[in-house]
Amino acid sequence: MSDQPPVFKDTIAARATPSGKGGIGVIRVSGDRVPIICRAITGSLPKPRFASYTSFLDADGSVIDKGLAIYFVEPASFTGEPVLELQGHGGPVVMAMLLDRCVQLGARIAAPGEFTERAFLNNKIDLSQAEAIADLIDSASSAAAKSAVRSMQGEFSGLVRALTEKLTSLRIYVEAAIDFPEEEIDFLADEKVEGMLDSILAEFDKVTRKATQGALLREGVSLVLAGRPNAGKSSLMNVLTGKDLSIVTEIAGTTRDVIDDYIHLDGLPLRLIDTAGLRTPGDVIEREGVRRAQNEIKNADRVLLIVDCFSTKGEIKHKVGELLGEVSSEIPVTVVLNKIDLNPDWQQELEDIPDNWIPVSAKTGEGIDQLREHLKQALGYVVVEEGTFLARARHLDALARARESVETGRQRLIIEKAGELLAEELKLSQQALGEITGIVTSDDLLGRIFSSFCIGK
Amino acid sequence: MVSATKFDVIVIGGGHAGTEAALAAARSGASTLLVTQNIETLGQMSCNPAIGGIGKSHLVKEIDALGGVMALAADYAGIHFRVLNRRKGPAVRATRAQADRQLYRAYIRRTLENQPNLKIFQQSVDDLIVQDERVTGVVTDMGLRFAATSIVLTVGTFLGGIIHVGMDKRQGGRAGDAASNRLADRLRELPFSVGRLKTGTPPRIDGNTVDFSFLEEQPGDEPRPVMSYLSSNKDHPRQVSCFITHTNENTHDLIRAGLDRSPLYTGKIDGVGPRYCPSIEDKIVRFDDKSSHQIFIEPEGLDTVEIYPNGISTSLPFDVQQQFVRSIKGFEVAHITRPGYAIEYDFFEPRDLKNSLETRHLSGLYFAGQINGTTGYEEAAAQGLIAGINAARAARGDDAWCPRRNEAYMGVLVDDLITMGTTEPYRMFTSRAEYRLILRQDNADRRLTEQGRKLGLVDEVRWRRYCEKRDAISSHAQILNETYVHPGDTAIEAVLGQEISREYSLIELLKRPKVTVDSLIQAARLPFVNKEVNEQIEIDCKYEGYISRQQEEIDRIAAQQEMRIPDVIEYRSIRGLSNEVCEKLETVRPGTIGQAGRISGVTPVAVSLLLIYLKKQDFSAVGKKQGRSRSLKSA
Question: How far apart are the first and last CA of chain B?
């Protein structure tokens, strides 16, 4: 057995450190493509087993991050295959970009327990550990399934399922047209297929938008602090993060991560985004960061609209109305009426205010408990765990590949009239979606064809 | 009485599976005996007189690439040829031939009679001689005994066959032929699991009573395709047309009125029929909203006026058949020459087979064709060839051979059958092949002929033809790759429909959509005249990206796919495998990890657990043998 080549041929990559844990993040890559990936990202192939400090480069040569790269040659590595470890700053955006880069370079995102499995199958781990590894794979996969379910709460998995169903319906037509060309259902010659393709592509865009930016897939619920300058955003931020609420993770480390602070509100992970924190874009990495931040804001779970009750004295309700007009009506808003300590008449002025208007004083702390209670109630519906990071990266990667296949298939059909290539692309697309839902259908397309069309002579 | 000669291989049955099995065994050098109930019906087409079609011509060309007879017979007997899916791309293109039944039978019989190492004998086989879970011979109805090392059973629908026409039923293997009941009873005593399937045929009609003048004529295609890599269309006999007509509301009403005497709808038939080839009564009941169904009128032959109305297979009573046939345009005064009928027959659970098509229960016994739950001449012939070659190899003590899923539709067919089993007559479709872009009818020779040569199936003539083609493809492709054209080359620019701004190799230009190899060759004035060779270069080029992606996938999983699972494995002792997965694995008993992964319900995690278990067993085995564990050695 030891003479056999490694059982696996492809290259896998994953974040090796749990997300949201301190300032260092490790991406581990294993497989035959490691030397290529290493050269592309670090610019060279470092001496095996020595840590070298280097820049991690993106496709266009810009620097994603700087850190340590360690290259292991086979079989003297954890998995018995060529392995690369990239140790960077660990911010979610940087990690995501590095992982994206590895995928671009031919790796795929590892399945749960896959590194250990390879290590075992390549004789790197002792026999006595075999049972433990079987258990690990078993539990890692169920944990991943759990986190995948969590990361895809309700709507997302529903959307992906709906998308898969649409894709399947189209495949039924395409495959029927191929396998039963004489049945008067030559759908490929028809323009209807183009319409269906376009509608599927639009659906993909919708789902991708939601998955990338929306409240569906993320580590923590995002809260955006908005308001006029001097409304007290910073002091509110301080009081939320520094005083009564404990800071669990600080992901300040790098300039590219726009997320200012992670806080836990009685176990509910929140990420506070201060709009004032946005900088004028500088290098490419910062532009990327700003772009992502803007997306986060547009699609935040909730906006905390901070209003200064002192300077708007006498016309608070009017000012709030004005500000609300500037925020998209689709995003839930909490109006934080700050600086009540400077406005002795606030109680009279703010009689009969809606439940989501919370008078506070960031300075004295008055009303902060109520704000906290209010946020817990308003946001408690989303609870996300660690471990969703990889699930999310896998899902986004799969979604992107699925969409690309449909797009390519469309080109094949329209430009080359190649129905069989459209069919191939649609199959690949459905496979990619299957990676998200975990449903590996044993292709019962034929069954569906027979029940949809009167086939046969 | 025992025959003095012991054969290497005995093939029981002279249909499409049996003939290919006998020929393959004999070609590869095994002394072979073909036993048939009736020498006159060797190579009989029991259903419609056509060979090929989508997914099916792929099989025919693979059989041909391995030296089989089906494609050559179809060219010899083909009286109407069409290319299906011509506009959808080469991977899904298919060829179909209407065959003259008599010519087809004559060609098959002549080939069998002239095949060295092959003897033919007319007798019905009643029993198998079994010793210690191994077959050693057969007993015929006259009590003659023949001994053999391997036996291939290709008895089609003859095992326990029951023919239904309306409420009337009788035993039979095919209209006009007896069923093999004693053999069926005998096999039922052996530990095989038996199921029932059903298939049917339409009534045949006297063409002189059909008015063709208002029917849509469908002539064959020009240029006329061929089935065999060795044929040219000069080998074809005179060509004739097919015609198309349709059922109408009146037809449907007449059929509905007869349903109370339909064996299908009154519970007389237990067997499951194919969903893709329903009877006309089935179509009308299940697709109530369709007011018309298409009927292909296929000629039965050049020397007969009989026609085969494909699309109205039925088991309704004869009076209903007559009424509804006469309600169809063109058939107003039609005379039915043979009634349509449904036939129920035994088939054996194909998951009890190895990929050599040898049964697990009785070594030396091979099954091929409808007995395994398939339908179609081509599916039967493909299995016959595989069973025949493996029966011969086993007799010589050689390892079994079966192409993989990425090598041939034959591989898909066998793997599907032994992995998933079937609940309806199994027919090939291109959508069953995950490597459809690689498994084309145009490259079956490139996929299989070299293997066929090593197996002793491919003769000198075919081998030389193949080598010439193979060499021409690579040398011409190289020339196209090294021939550069430059800006200002007006002939080339005319082909492209635009000017070129730098120099390009012809292969680079061929990759562009809509650019054909013929137009480039012409524009560059290259002397490449072999259409077949040019076509291969073009397809290789157009599909390159897809093929290399599929190839990467194949390579990636190859090592794992091929990892063998020992026959004695105890799935229940593998930690983490659910009961459900264990049951599935126990039913199928996959031979490799790859096959295990294709069983529906066996998850990737289960496959990982299986891999780890096998690895661990391997550790222990090596450990025992060497007195220390592998892990110590590697540490």
Answer: 66
